[in-house]
Amino acid sequence: MKKSIRLLKVLTVILIYPMVFVMVFAAQPGTQEDPIVSKSYVDSKISEVIGLIAAMPPAPPEAAQENTGAFVPVSILTGQIVLGGEGAEIILRSGKVVAYNSGPDGLVNVTSGEEVTNGDDIAKNNLLIVPRSDGRGVMALEDSWLIIKGGYEIIN
Length: 156
Known about the structure:
Elements: H1 2-26, H2 39-55, E1 64-76, E2 81-84, E3 89-94, E4 97-100, E5 107-109, E6 114-116, E7 127-129, E8 137-140, E9 144-155
Antiparallel strand pairs: 1-9, 2-8, 2-9, 3-7, 3-9, 4-8, 5-6, 5-7
């Protein structure tokens, strides 16, 4: 009985190990869907992407911003208009601005509880809410600083 077990073990080793050896070393690295690539190929592709990024034109400064998390300080020059997106909140910190809108409705001044219509002066530190994204905002009569929460666009 011991000889037959020993013989079975020897035959198993003789038959199984060569099959495992062939499967390990005969396997092709990579597949058509997941090929193995060289470092030089990856480096060349990275260089291409960097070149494409470098060739992109720079984004215009503060042309259109989508800020939804916190108030951000925004500087505007005399004559510039800030159009708020729907639900945007605007607070004048320094300078002089007036309300700007193209329709009959205006901005909501939450601090005073009044509606601010086109051309009305905006008091400092008053919270304005833009109800809809339909061309409502503020226009600077002198260089001014605002803090804005929400989407906005600066027009020269």
